[in-house]
Structure formats: structure tokens, C-alpha cells
């Protein structure tokens, strides 16, 4: 299999949990505490992926200046987009509970698309930079997508969307995830150290801003203090995957 197809395949694998999460949101009732534990574990894995994979590699290859700028730009952009999405009712998209009254499920879906595309680009860039897929990043994105799709699907169902249409929307995001990973591999200039390291740090900044403002607060709210330990297990898992990967 060519490297480009490999990038597309793993982008699709990471995005497939959006469809699985949508199925759970439509057909099953998931206890909030269980979802909180999944989010807490995913938060730890994501923080580990951002630190051990993205930031450390960026600083090792590109020094401190450009990764620092990329990190700040990534976190700033995510928060600005988050503020805009929140005004439209999409701030709950990484959360696992039902869609709040007056908040649009479609707004949550749009926010999910905004998350999914750059996340998938990271997968393609990781293959381009390291000549192998970053398992930590794939697993972290896969886990974090579950509560996002569950929340949106519950909201869309309450907004009157047909189940088939909801699943179709998430299949569209799945395809976009695969294409974005492919484009991340094909279009990024592998010879530009500054560009590669800046993109990695940019993604890390967005991840830190996302888990801090969306996933971790919800996990603690629903799961209590034990989520701190579960997050630590996620971080340790990320470290182990990085070590053996």
C-alpha cells in the first residue's frame, strides 16, 4: 500500500469513532459516568500525544522559536473558533450528555467538522515526518471523537433529524477525515523543517486548548475526582505507546 493511501486509511480509522459514537447516541443510552471515564482517559492520551509526539518532535527538529509560535497560534485559533461556535450553540460538542435546551445539534455537528479536519491532517503530517503513523495520535483522536458524535447525534435527534440522515452526516465527516489525512501527507512540503514543526506545534496548541475547555471539565462534572486518576492512566498509556512506537 502506498504511503498516501496509508495516510487516508488511518485518517478514516481515527474518524470512524464518529460514526460509532453517533450510533450509540441514536440507539443506546450511555450512562454519563461511563462517558466521563472515556473522556478522562481520552484527555490523558491526547495530552500525551500533544506533548510526547507533537511538541517534543517539533522542538527537537526546529528549535524553540517556531514551535512556540505555532503552539500559541494553534491554541489561540481554537479558542476563537470555540467562542464563535459557542454563540451558535455548539459548545457541547465534546460532551456526552444530551443536547441542552435551545442549543442546535447542527451547530454541534459543524463544530465537529471544524475539529475533525485539522486532527486528520495531523495524521498525514505524522506519516510524512516520521515515515510511520503515530499510533498515539490515531488512538487519541479515535477516543476523543466518541463523546463528540454522541452529543451531536442526541441533539440532532431531538431537533427532529431522521436517524438515517444523522448517520449520513457522520459518514460525510468520516470521508472528510480520510481526505484530510491524505491531503496532509500529499500537500505539506516535507523539506520545510519550519513548516513541519510549526504544524505539529500548532496542532498541539489546539489539542491543549480543546481538552482544557471542553473534555476535562465535562469529565470532572460527570465523573468526580476519580477522573484525575483515569486521565493519568491515559497519559501513561500515551507514554508507553510512544516508547514502543
TrEMBL record:
Subcellular location: Cell membrane
Protein's recorded name: ZIP family metal transporter
Entry's family note: Belongs to the ZIP transporter (TC 2.A.5) family.
Superkingdom of the source species: Bacteria
Keywords for this protein: Cell membrane, Membrane, Transmembrane, Transmembrane helix, Zinc
PANTHER family: ZINC TRANSPORTER ZIP11, ZINC/IRON TRANSPORTER
Membrane topology classification: Multi-pass membrane protein
Lineage: Bacteria, Bacillati, Bacillota, Bacilli, Bacillales
Main subcellular localisation: membrane
Transmembrane segments: 6-27, 34-52, 64-85, 106-127, 133-154, 166-188, 194-214, 226-244
Signal peptide bounds: none
Organism whose genome encodes this protein: Halalkalibacter alkalisediminis
Amino acid at each position: 500500500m502506498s504511503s498516501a493511501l496509508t495516510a487516508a486509511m488511518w485518517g478514516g480509522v481515527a474518524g470512524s469513532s464518529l460514526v460509532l459514537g453517533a450510533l450509540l447516541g441514536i440507539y443506546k443510552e450511555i450512562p454519563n459516568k461511563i462517558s466521563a471515564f472515556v473522556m478522562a482517559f481520552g484527555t490523558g492520551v491526547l495530552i500525551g500525544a500533544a506533548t510526547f509526539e507533537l511538541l517534543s518532535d517539533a522542538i527537537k527538529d526546529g528549535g524553540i522559536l517556531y514551535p512556540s509560535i505555532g503552539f500559541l497560534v494553534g491554541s489561540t485559533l481554537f479558542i476563537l473558533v470555540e467562542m464563535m461556535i459557542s454563540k451558535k450553540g455548539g459548545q457541547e460538542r465534546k460532551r456526552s450528555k444530551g443536547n441542552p435546551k435551545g442549543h442546535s445539534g447542527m451547530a454541534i455537528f459543524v463544530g465537529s467538522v471544524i475539529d475533525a479536519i485539522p486532527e486528520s491532517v495531523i495524521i498525514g503530517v505524522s506519516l510524512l515526518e516520521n515515515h510511520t503513523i503515530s499510533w498515539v495520535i490515531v488512538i487519541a483522536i479515535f477516543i476523543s471523537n466518541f463523546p463528540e458524535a454522541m452529543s451531536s447525534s442526541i441533539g440532532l435527534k431531538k431537533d427532529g433529524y431522521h436517524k438515517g440522515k444523522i448517520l449520513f452526516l457522520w459518514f460525510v465527516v468520516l470521508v472528510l477525515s480520510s481526505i484530510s489525512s491524505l491531503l496532509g501527507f500529499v500537500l505539506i512540503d516535507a523539506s520545510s523543517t519550519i513548516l513541519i514543526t510549526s504544524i505539529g506545534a500548532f496542532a498541539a496548541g489546539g489539542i491543549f486548548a480543546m481538552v482544557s475547555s471542553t473534555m476535562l471539565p465535562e469529565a470532572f462534572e460527570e465523573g468526580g475526582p476519580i477522573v484525575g486518576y483515569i486521565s493519568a492512566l491515559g497519559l501513561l498509556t500515551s507514554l508507553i505507546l510512544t516508547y514502543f512506537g
